[in-house]
Amino acid sequence: MSAKADKPKIMGYMPQDVPPVGALISLGFQQVLTMFPATVLVAILTKFDVGMTLFASGIGTIVALFVSGRRIPLYYGSSFSYITVVVTTMGLYAKDCFSDPTTFYCPEGVRIVQVGIMGTAIVEILVGLLIMAIGKELLDKVLPPVITGSVAIVIGIALAGTALSMASANWVVAFITLIVTIALSVYLQGKGLLGMLPVLLGAIVGYIFAAIFYPDLMNYAPIADAPWIRFNFTFPAFTDPNAWAAITGIALIAIATIPESTAHLYQMSLYIDQLAKDLGRKPIEIKRLIGLNLVADGADDLVVGFLGGCAGTNYGENNSLMAITRCYSIPVLMCAGGIAILLGLIGKFAAVVNTLPVAVTGGLAIYLFGVIGMQGIALIQSERVNLFEPRQLAVGATILVAGIGGAMGLKDGLFPFPIPVIFPSGIPAIVFAALLGILVNLVFLLLPPRLFGVQDRENINL
Fold first, then answer.
1. CA 139 to CA 145: how far, in whole Å?
2. Which of 10, 318, 344, 450 has its CA 20 to 30 A from that of 350?
3. What are the tens digits of pLDDT across the range 298-331?
4. Alpha carbon 384 to chain centroid distance?
5. Is-contact 117 85, C-beta < 8 A?
6. In whole angstroms, what is the distance from residue 171 CA to residue 87 CA?
């Protein structure tokens, strides 16, 4: 038998491939299972409607796939990066949203935040079009890794108080949930689909533990009261006087999500082209579509912002699943979007999710918010930012102290610098920190140290 005949058959689907119907549906459902835990948790933490968030995720993903010309296989779910500024915005302009822990959905606050999400969409689309016109190099100078990484750290750590506040509803339940989730995320790596779902499994364990040992934490009444089918969308509050503040504050978080999306695109490009090589096909190099990718991101946020879903991002979890299964099929992702739409319409399903005790979400939040901060550190590390260089230290240190210190130490997390119309009550700490970091970096771009005879310090790699 020839060597060619002995060669095992390579299994996998390129972006334009259409699997058989059975595989199409099962692979699509697996994508939904993968995005589900994080997407739903963001909705719970920010008082968005769970069903509408799932529905909007499905619609947004399908729209983004079409905007990209069905060339970029990415699934869109709720972004953790926006939680801090969304909670801050709701706390300022819809104070009743977080005063009652039994409130699962706050339409008053959601409508204001929707305007900000659509503002984010415009920023992403404009940046995408700019990159398509002039390239990515200029963006990297204005938003270098030390800024994007430091902002990501602030986003995660500034939420530490919120996570602990939720966990304090029952410390035992919170820490059981935390420990189980961490253990599953570590020890189930590489174990197929189960390895992709540590947050979902941790939440289930925490839920069962609370139901058995602390039944007073459980409230099943919403399940009986919920309809089987519902469509619970809200329109953005464009006429609200606080809308401009929401746009400015929320849209700036694109500083963190644009590099994240770009990194996902580069990773997927490598995996897809490797599969193309294994299948004997021509590489498609989707990494060249970085500008179009950001336009697609913006298209997703336009959809979810209009319908009342959480601000979105393309999901690294789903990217990892595609790498494991070697399935990058656009039709599969569209099928996943369709399944998410159907799940979002089931009122009983959303009601079951809303019975999750606050202490369980607190335990999950301790881990997940910390991971957001650590990912910022990972970005700085992976990009080999020279932290022996005073310029880099100055930019990062300014962002960290202004962002974290401001969120935890200032009243309502606001710097006392009111700006009429945009920030009449003061500037949110995370927004102020990002702007301050960009300004400090801009000074060094306009007045580089070499003009004063200062040489760059060597970056020591330990």
1. 11
2. 318
3. 999 999 999 999 999 888 778 877 887 889 999 9
4. 24
5. no
6. 22
